[in-house]
Design goal:
mainly alpha; Growth Hormone, Chain: A; globular
Length: 424
């Protein structure tokens, strides 16, 4: 890869959002829709599927979960930037983002129905892929709205609110699955899927979307390929921020993806009761998460500082993960997860704002935010590939090794943010 022959173009960060003025209900419905999509994807991927796998084949649950999560990660890696680019080019009287939100919800619900009635691993894999395509399109549109509709001066606080919404969705979703009957498997998928769809549609119905009038240039194969690529030497700040998010997300996914199995295998909780304990652990996570998200979102907007908050957040996450490794009982593990939640809350409070402030071109926000989203979605593929051999060390179920990997990833994330120059 060669050095650019000319200095990278300077991106001017607009102080006001380029989209049309919104009504008073935009921000509440935006946060609510963010909650809904996280409820659907997070609950199904983090609670419903692991529980279904544990009941389907307890002996092979680690490998089966890795297969499902890995396929889902590949799907998301392909569709998110592509859908973002196509969204930027969408000419419709309904707007640029709304058609993707509606279509995504409808496709996502088809996949949810498939999961609800799947009786084998192959159908679960295929159905989860459809869910990821559908709700992934909706999620992409919501990310684009952050650049389209939210002014820079409040972006960190809005991002913090979405982080809180995602945390609440995780808690409520796990509690929903834990409260549903163990012999009513279909409800583990249908209930969070339908709730998430309804909340996403509320935003779509009230949104004053950007409308593209001018036709886009023909989309060549080279342009499609560029959808997945930004030159890291030309856009160094964007590259460092991207790797920061990738490493931090891989760290937390390593914990969250296998949380239910940790509770069953390491803490010795029967699988019939494990979902309830998982909900309790997520509650501890949420308490630490929401406090730090709101606090550091406010601090970041007041001071204009992003980088130091990300670095501190990564260190706090490492402390929590270390305590989790050493936890002698369930209560200590809950406290450790709470500390991890605090670190992640501080990170979430500024991460989205930081990423939008290093975008190379705001005219291609959907495409570029699609690449940003890869740093969040790619871990769904990478973590299972890493976790299966790591967990197998010493005969299987080696959660100490998995958590050490998560600590290293969090440290790498904290270090990656330091070279960024455009953002304080």
């Amino acid at each position: 890869m060669s050095q650019p022959t000319s200095p990278p173009p300077v991106t001017v960060i607009p102080s006001e959002a380029p989209g049309p003025a919104q009504g008073r209900w935009f921000l509440p419905t935006f946060v609510l829709a963010w909650f809904g999509v996280n409820l659907a994807l997070g609950t199904i991927g983090g609670a419903s599927i692991p529980k279904a796998i544990a009941f389907l084949d307890d002996e092979s649950k680690d490998t089966n979960l890795a297969i499902i999560a890995g396929v889902g990660g590949i799907i998301v890696m392909i569709i998110t930037p592509l859908f973002g680019r196509l969204s930027d080019r969408t000419r419709s009287r309904f707007g640029m983002r709304r058609p993707w939100m509606l279509g995504g919800v409808l496709v996502g619900l088809l996949g949810v129905a498939g999961l609800a009635f799947a009786t084998n691993l192959a159908v679960m894999v295929a159905s989860w892929a459809v869910v990821q395509i559908g709700f992934g399109a909706t999620n992409m549109a919501q990310h684009a709205l952050l650049a389209d509709q939210v002014p820079t001066r409040i972006r960190a606080r809005v991002a913090a609110a979405t982080g809180v919404a995602a945390g609440i969705a995780t808690i409520i979703g796990a509690a929903i699955v834990a409260s549903l009957p163990n012999d009513q498997r279909a409800t583990w998928f249908l209930v969070p899927g339908v709730i998430g769809a309804v909340f996403a549609l509320v935003l779509m119905l009230g949104l004053r979307d950007r409308v593209r009038v001018e036709p886009a240039e023909p989309l060549s194969l080279r342009a499609i390929a560029s959808t997945y690529w930004l030159n890291p030497l030309q856009y160094r700040d964007f590259a460092w921020a991207w790797f920061c998010r990738l490493f931090v997300t891989m760290s937390i996914v390593s914990v969250s993806l296998y949380l239910l199995f940790f509770i069953i295998d390491r803490l010795g909780i029967p699988k019939e009761q494990a979902s309830g304990v998982q909900a309790q652990a997520l509650l501890f996570f949420f308490v630490g998460n929401v406090v730090m998200t709101l606090l550091f979102g406010w601090i970041s907007d007041r001071t204009g500082r992003r980088k130091i908050i990300v670095f501190i957040a990564c260190l706090v996450t490492c402390v929590g993960l270390t305590l989790a490794i050493l936890a002698p009982d369930t209560l200590t593990f809950m406290v450790a997860i709470g500390i991890v939640g605090a670190g992640q809350g501080a990170f979430i409070s500024v991460d989205v704002a930081l990423m939008t402030e290093v975008l190379p071109n705001f005219d291609n926000a959907g495409k570029d935010l699609g690449i940003v989203a890869l740093a969040y979605q790619l871990p769904q593929l990478l973590v299972p590939l890493v976790a299966v051999p790591v967990l197998a060390i010493g005969g299987g179920g080696n959660y100490t090794a998995l958590y050490i990997v998560a600590i290293v990833l969090s440290l790498l994330g904290g270090l990656a943010v330091l070279p960024i120059k455009k953002v304080k």
